[in-house]
Structures are given as C-alpha cells and as structure tokens.
Design goal:
It is a single chain. By secondary structure, the chain is α/β, with parallel strands linked by helices. The chain is about 25% helix and about 25% strand. The strands form three sheets. Strands 3, 4, 5, 6, 7, 14 and 15 form a seven-stranded mixed sheet that branches. Helix 6 links the parallel strand 9 and strand 10. Helix 4 packs across helix 5. The protein is globular.
C-alpha cells in the first residue's frame, strides 16, 4: 500500500511517500481502507519531535490520528462492525491515518455520519472530540451559561462554537476580522475581532472561557471570568498545570486543560449532532496524500480556517 512515513523527527521534508506493507490486525481491531484523513497540530508536533518522550524513537512511523473509510476485515473479537461498514474515528497514538489501509481499534471508531463526505468525516474526530470533552466534561457546560471561545475559526474552535450553541450556551467567538462572518454563521451570538479588541479587556464576564488555540492562561483571563468560572485550554503549560492543581478543590476560578480521549460513544453523539444539522464541518483546504508535506506546512502557519483534509483514496 501507499503511505506517508517518517524515519526521523524533523521538518516537513522528513515525510516520505512510498510503498509499505499493509498492516495486520489484532483481535480487537478493524482493517480499514482509508478514504481520508486530516491534519491536526499534534500531527506535526509529533513529526517535529516535540512529543518524542511519548511517541518514542522507533521508526519508521506513519502519523495521522483522524480516519474515515471502509471496513474490509475485522478481528476475531470485534462485535460492532462488519466488512463494508463506513466508519470514522481515531487511530492509536501516534497515528496510522496517512496510508491507504490502517489497523484501527474497534473502540475508537463509529459509523460515519451519513450526510458527510469522507474528507468532512475525517476532519471531525480529534478536533470535535476535543471541543466536546472540554466543554461538557471539563467545563460542565449548562444551558444559558456565557461561554467564550478563543480561536473560534480554527479546527477545534469551529466545533466548540457549534457544540456550545447546541448545548444551550450563549456563545462569544473570538477570531480575526476576516473570519467574523464565519463564526457568526456557526452560531456565535457575539463575536470579537482580536485585531481590534483584547477580549480580556471586555466588560462582559463568562462562565467558561475555552482557549482553543492555547494562547492564554487563567491569570490573563481571570478579570473576565466569573468568580466560579472555568478556564480551559488545549495547551497544558507548566503554569496551567500548576493552576489546575491549586484551584482543583477550592470554590474559586478554576484552570483546566483538555487531553481528548477518543471513544465510540462520543463519536456516536457527534454523529447525531451532525446528522441533526447541529454541526457542520469547515474545511479550509484538501490535499492528496502525496502532498502531505505541503498540508503540514500550511497547518504550521496557524492561518487555517477550520480543518485541513487529506484525500487518501477514492
């Protein structure tokens, strides 16, 4: 099969498109013919070696954590899927999605939303699960709460706006001026142009501030966070980690970080929201698998609106 792999950590040029052996599946895995994947910042952070302590030093590696495709074989212990099923979901860390076939754990995938293309479906899992688990599990979001999403036009942020709105929150989205209309169309009740206004100087206060781009901290946002409000970030810096420990058991403003946990149940929940018209997928660009290096380079600019999709096969 064709795949993109790395034999060392480094810049985008370490990504190599070549022929490799098709993976063999274990009892609880599916063999999936992949039709699409996507690029998330974690993919190129792994490639750069920023997560080498957990990704390890064994090469070659096939990266890519998001997948969408068709089941072609199932392991002896699989009970929920059969050959021919169209699925979407996640691979095991550190990846496997940048290939024509992948061995995928049964408990990390669900049936694909019927109203999405393969590229749209592959753009959902990591980013949407991050948004859902941040707001629902870490933020304990409630109907009527005031929620601010920083980075509302990005991959995680675009899903966070829609999920917060679907869960009954009053949503403020922060983005650049060129993306304000998009953020409004996703369901934001109010938008802030960060090129014109620093949201931390706003007169409003929020029950939840979700920093979907990992640019802020509790100390920077506490003035606009309600007394019992929750600050959540995608970037667990030492400061955020310390704040999360110090505030965990006190009736004060809390700091939390989100490390998404892929699972079938949450993917089914997202599928229901998508098929019910509550969530749409924003794709900035789609690249063929053999141009993955260009897709990584574009993601690293930080200018992508929504997600970057990878077309694997038709």
């Amino acid at each position: 099969m064709k795949a993109v792999l790395i034999r060392r950590y480094g810049a985008a040029e370490v990504l190599e498109y070549e022929d490799v052996e098709q993976p063999k599946i274990e009892p609880m895995q599916l063999l999936v013919k992949l039709r699409a994947s996507s690029v998330n910042p974690i993919d190129w952070k792994i490639r750069q070696g920023m997560l080498s302590l957990i990704a390890g030093s064994k090469f070659p590696k096939i990266l890519g954590l998001d997948v969408a495709g068709d089941v072609v074989a199932v392991g002896s212990g699989v009970t929920r899927f059969k050959p021919g099923d169209a699925i979407y979901g996640s691979t095991s860390f550190p990846g496997g999605g940048y290939a024509e076939f992948a061995a995928v754990p049964e408990n990390l995938v669900a049936l694909k939303p019927t109203n999405l293309s393969d590229e749209e479906a592959a753009a959902v899992p990591l980013a949407a699960l991050t948004a859902l688990q941040a707001l629902r599990d870490q933020g304990n979001i409630q109907i009527g709460q005031a929620v601010l999403i920083n980075g509302a036009a990005g991959g995680v942020g675009s899903f966070a706006v829609q999920i917060a709105q679907a869960l009954g929150a009053v949503v403020t989205g922060v983005s650049s001026s060129r993306n304000l209309d998009l953020v409004k169309s996703l369901g934001a009740d109010r938008v802030i142009d960060y090129t014109q206004q620093d949201f931390t100087e706003d007169i409003a206060q929020y029950d939840i501030i979700f920093d979907a781009v990992g640019k802020r901290s509790l100390s920077q946002t506490k003035r606009v966070l309600k007394p019992n409000g929750i600050f959540i970030t995608t970037l667990p810096t030492p400061e955020v980690f310390l704040d999360s420990v110090l505030t965990a058991f006190l009736p004060v403003q809390k700091a939390k970080f989100i490390l998404q946990k892929p699972n079938t149940q949450d993917l089914i929940y997202l599928k229901e929201l998508i098929e019910g018209g509550k969530i749409r997928v924003v794709i900035d660009r789609t690249y063929p698998l053999q141009e993955l290096a260009a897709a990584h380079d574009y993601s690293e600019t930080g200018r992508a609106v929504g997600k970057i999709a990878i077309a694997v096969s038709s």
